[in-house]
């Protein structure tokens, strides 16, 4: 019912935007910004694209960013007492073509790194009941890695890696997409006898590729956005992984300094008019101030969800196209609670005691509580929460899920009695849509090639994890392939 109501509301917004005319006389000259390109979204893709547009292609640009900083899913927290740093969003980078050169160009240092807090004691419990799983035993890691290596070799042998990295530019037309890629993941791994990789790729992809429901029902193509062969090689230890010295936010702070007044922070587009060579956007800041942006071209660098696209006066073909997308919602955070043990509490369904290959959770869920050693006595834990209903699983709902999990764990004696203590939010980030994709039927009908045909339509281009693998280095290389055409158009 809620989805239907929202669809009706979206239709109203789209119709209003399509017929509304922006009156420039409503804006003072100081509130009108003229640029060659307007970029909506200052995450990994949007920030990188803006730098390339201005510094390499020498075109004027403005970034419209809803948050008070650039970086998107990058979340770096510095403990005020110890000064220690914890990245609780994007945590690492791996070599992909020449993408890492961007750090050098930005004069940002990166160093070899390894996943943190992995040597903590582990406690497995079903957060839906609070019951500890005393008889649960993980699949041997060697078995999982062997299956992942087989998976990587398979994708390379069949050419799937070229179809999904860095984006879907080389994906065949719908009717020619390999059947393997349109299989549910569970059927794919069974077909190739690599089921023992499931619990390892599940944890690596945030327990289900951004909360799109039951893991093994995801299309293999959707899964490959979150676990592409390039990342799989890093997971296997075949190539190094890096982190930014001083925290991953350092890069985006440097970009913000470089771009200076070419960024509108705490701002969202509320109204628009789009045509080839003539883009008009009304951006409103959190304090209500409005700016009119006049640009020749528009680059949308946020996931093309119904919610994100509502202000962009979609025409009927665009509205129908984007109405077919599916996505969940995920959150990452640092929390504190004195009753949590200095360990990693892993949310594991009771069924996993009998079937450790499939320790999969039904949404919504809290993935676990990972003790962050860097903060010592502060008892800080990293958590992620995920839900498959984007509209319903907002920040209050996700935080309520965290508190509910703690209460259930305490009720069953898995952790001590809470004594009325509530969870303390140290730092929280709503990561927004996750697991972005469409159905196998829509892919066969040509959804993806239609998506790429939209590049440049009405003066608008798209980048970001809606169109490519969900890893920063791959998004940067996707940009490198996209921006030349945008500039030449």
TrEMBL record:
Listed transmembrane segments: none
SUPFAM superfamilies: FAD/NAD(P)-binding domain
Keyword Signal in annotation: yes
Signal peptide: 1-20
Keywords: Signal
Keyword Transferase recorded: no
Name used for this protein in its record: Amine oxidase domain-containing protein
